[in-house]
Write a structure and sequence with these properties.
The protein is α/β, with parallel strands linked by helices and 209 residues long. The chain has five helices and six strands, in the order αββααββαββα. The protein has a single domain, classed as 3-Layer(aba) Sandwich (Rossmann fold). It is elongated and about 60 Å long.
Amino acid sequence: MRSSAVLLGLIASAALLMSCNATGLLSQVVSYRVSPQVEPQSTQTATKRVTLYYRVNYEGDPLAGFEMIFEQPYEKFRSAFAEERRFVETIAVNAPPQRGLFCSVDLTTKPRSRSRGFSDFPLWLTMLSFQVIPYYDEESRYIVRYDLYLDGELKNTYRYEVTRETWIWLGLIPFVWINALTSSHGEALASTVDGFFHDAAQDGFFGRE
């Protein structure tokens, strides 16, 4: 009898947690932002017409960057570089060339600042209240560093940080469609390419915009 009561208790607890999580997904808004803020690209074409070589490297805990399972940021990086018109061509390479303009892109996943388990008391409080109690979290998730080389010599380094913001509240259910308008993590990461081109152009490496 006791084992049956324990089993029923576990089943009831699991059902409650599944219900809380399902409601949480329907009342959650997630957004990513980049700092420093990425400036909009100029529509003008720079005077320098050269080939840019680049390589994207990834470092960090794969589990901490689980978003990459659902969205491939490498493809977005490749598309962002390919769409840049100030160069004759942008070419992804496995090794830096000895001559020419080369950019090493280092994408690093930052360790989670706190566990999303039992130690995150505010989140559990929100979930167990069926999202009546609001929850907000802001966490730095990625660092993207661009090292710009000319003929093998490092010229400058540009660094951008991607932060994830999460809102959970029952009152957000009618507005959950906002998730379709906010930046995904892949889009936020790829937007740092525009920031790099803008900042490097301002420093005179590609011709000023």
